[in-house]
């Protein structure tokens, strides 16, 4: 019998509770509820699959913080969808986004202090960040220009590119500048969403953020290109070893325990 993973279930309940509170406070409308519900269900399925792949049954302390951030991102998603159907409550959207951005600095610290850092947690955190940037880009684009969507789409274009270009799957070394650039995207986008800057200044800030993001991705792509031979070789060796591993004694048992 597959193990019960309470984390995604709790996240789903938390998300709908937040959406209900948000709807009662500022209103969401059909578009907001539809987007929020789709986000909640979709993220729950993806999270369950990711935990299954990682062999996890329960969240760690830091994952609980990230799950809270994910629920906040769901609220921002709902408000953004509602904005396309009418006037959105900007203070609510900006306030929730700011809390989500602040919590982004918390989950990593919790993971380190509790010695529960993991590849799953890092990926969970990254995907929540990426989707928040995508949603904010969608919110800002109608007023600043559709080119702003490039900020939110760049991460996903990169992921799609890895399906076509295997050498992009190579390992990248940790780089503090990536974190700085990611933080800048969120800060600039939420500032633009708050509409507290003159339009020309906001556009220049957004263009600068996009330039920094392009430079960061570009540097990584160049690094991976230079090391493409090693990456492709590693992929081929892993593919060659896969049949042997599948038939090895105990391999089926391991998969059974994680099913």
TrEMBL record:
<protein>
    <submittedName>
        <fullName>Membrane protein</fullName>
    </submittedName>
</protein>
<feature type="transmembrane region" description="Helical">
    <location>
        <begin position="131"/>
        <end position="164"/>
    </location>
</feature>
<keyword id="KW-0812">Transmembrane</keyword>
<dbReference type="InterPro" id="IPR043130">
    <property type="entry name" value="CDP-OH_PTrfase_TM_dom"/>
</dbReference>
<dbReference type="GO" id="GO:0016020">
    <property type="term" value="C:membrane"/>
</dbReference>
<dbReference type="InterPro" id="IPR048254">
    <property type="entry name" value="CDP_ALCOHOL_P_TRANSF_CS"/>
</dbReference>
<keyword id="KW-0472">Membrane</keyword>
<comment type="similarity">
    <text>Belongs to the CDP-alcohol phosphatidyltransferase class-I family.</text>
</comment>
<dbReference type="InterPro" id="IPR000462">
    <property type="entry name" value="CDP-OH_P_trans"/>
</dbReference>
<keyword id="KW-0808">Transferase</keyword>
<dbReference type="Pfam" id="PF01066">
    <property type="entry name" value="CDP-OH_P_transf"/>
</dbReference>
<feature type="transmembrane region" description="Helical">
    <location>
        <begin position="200"/>
        <end position="218"/>
    </location>
</feature>
<keyword id="KW-1133">Transmembrane helix</keyword>
<dbReference type="GO" id="GO:0016780">
    <property type="term" value="F:phosphotransferase activity, for other substituted phosphate groups"/>
</dbReference>
<dbReference type="GO" id="GO:0008654">
    <property type="term" value="P:phospholipid biosynthetic process"/>
</dbReference>
């Amino acid at each position: 019998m597959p193990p019960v993973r309470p984390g995604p279930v709790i996240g789903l309940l938390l998300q709908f509770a937040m959406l209900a509170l948000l709807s009662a406070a500022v209103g969401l409308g059909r578009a907001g509820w539809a987007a929020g519900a789709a986000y909640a269900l979709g993220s729950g399925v993806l999270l369950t699959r990711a935990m299954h792949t990682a062999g996890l049954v329960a969240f760690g302390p830091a994952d609980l913080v990230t799950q809270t951030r994910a629920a906040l991102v769901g609220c921002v998603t709902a408000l953004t969808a509602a904005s396309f159907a009418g006037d959105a409550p900007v203070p609510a959207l900006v306030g929730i986004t700011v809390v989500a951005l602040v919590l982004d600095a918390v989950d990593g610290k919790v993971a380190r202090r509790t010695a529960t850092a993991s590849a799953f947690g890092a990926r969970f955190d990254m995907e929540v960040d990426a989707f928040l940037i995508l949603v904010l880009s969608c919110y800002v684009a109608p007023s600043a220009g559709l080119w702003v969507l490039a900020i939110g789409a760049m991460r996903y274009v990169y992921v799609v590119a890895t399906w076509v270009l295997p050498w992009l799957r190579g390992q990248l070394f940790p780089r503090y500048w990536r974190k700085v650039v990611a933080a800048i995207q969120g800060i600039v986008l939420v500032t633009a969403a708050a509409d507290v800057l003159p339009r020309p200044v906001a556009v220049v800030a957004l263009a600068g953020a996009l330039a920094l993001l392009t430079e960061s991705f570009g540097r990584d792509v160049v690094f991976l290109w230079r090391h493409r031979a090693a990456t492709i070789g590693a992929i081929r060796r892993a593919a060659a070893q896969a049949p042997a591993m599948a038939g090895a004694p105990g391999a089926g048992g391991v998969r059974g325990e994680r099913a």
